[in-house]
Amino acid sequence: MKSITIKGSERESVGKAATRTARNAGMVPCVLYGGDQPVHFAAEEIAFKNLVYTPNVHTVVIELPSGTYSAILQDIQFHPVSDKILHIDFYQLKDDKEITMEVPVKITGTSPGVLGGGVLRVNQRKLKVRALPANLPDFVEANISELEMGNKLYITKLEANNFKLLNPDNTVVAQVRISRAAMKAAQEAAKAAKAPAKGKKK
């Protein structure tokens, strides 16, 4: 999985006043969990642009004066009106410990059902995976090459190399539905087949 580097500095004071001061200075208060003790730090809001405002998922390298940590974003709080980032929680990664997170679904291939007039519906935009940090995928590939009209692609049909898919086996990742135009054409064809030929005597 691709990584983004966040450079910050430790927060000596973590009270409400200190937090407000940090936000007024364009900094985002953060906490890193998963180690012996929580690490309180702050970083410039612009540093989180490519981490937060994207459909992709990344691990994070947090660079602080006291050291460097590998982590994932665990929780984020936004202002209810301005949508500015108020606070972020991170969880520290350890090379020998599996981690659970959601990663995007990437649709690949061409569906015969879509070529025949069906409509592709992606039911799951993200799936929950569990893996060692080094094996976390950037995305889960969902190949729709065998989907005919009316077919569904279940999670059990997806390849999971070096990671586990945690969603239930009956999870539908994508499906091809018959379009209104195709349905109308089928209905008209059925009516035409039942109608008597012109000029034919009963």
Features:
structural constituent of ribosome; RNA Polymerase Alpha Subunit, Chain A, domain 2; elongated; single chain; 14 strands; four-stranded mixed β-sheet; Ribosomal Protein L25, Chain P; alpha+beta
Quick structural summary:
The chain is an alpha+beta fold and 202 residues long. The chain contains four helices and 14 strands.
SSE blueprint and pairings:
Layout: E1 3-7, E2 9-10, H1 16-24, E3 27-33, E4 39-44, H2 49-52, E5 59-64, E6 67-78, E7 85-92, E8 99-108, H3 112-115, E9 119-122, E10 126-131, E11 140-143, E12 152-154, E13 164-165, E14 172-177, H4 180-194
Parallel strand pairs: 1-5, 3-7, 8-11
Antiparallel strand pairs: 2-4, 3-4, 5-6, 6-7, 8-10, 9-14, 10-13, 12-14
Physical arrangement of strands within the biggest beta sheet:
1-5-6-7-3-4-2
Give me the count of strands: 14
Q: What is the CATH top level name of the largest domain?
A: Mainly Beta
State the end-to-end CA separation.
71 Å
Q: Which percent bin holds the helix content?
A: 10-25%
Summed up, the helix count is 4
The largest sheet, given as strand count, sense and whether it forms a barrel, is: 7 strands, mixed
Tell me the count of domains: 2
Instruction: Tell me the overall shape.
Output: elongated
Class based on secondary structure composition and strand pairing: alpha+beta
CATH H-level superfamily title of the largest domain: Ribosomal Protein L25, Chain P
CATH topology of the largest domain: Ribosomal Protein L25, Chain P
Mean pLDDT: 89
Q: Which H/E pattern describes the elements?
A: EEHEEHEEEEHEEEEEEH
Architecture of the largest domain, CATH level 2? Answer: Beta Barrel
What's the Cα radius of gyration?
25 Å
What portion of residues belong to β-strands? 35-45%
Question: What are the segments in which pLDDT stays under 50 over at least 5 consecutive residues?
Answer: none
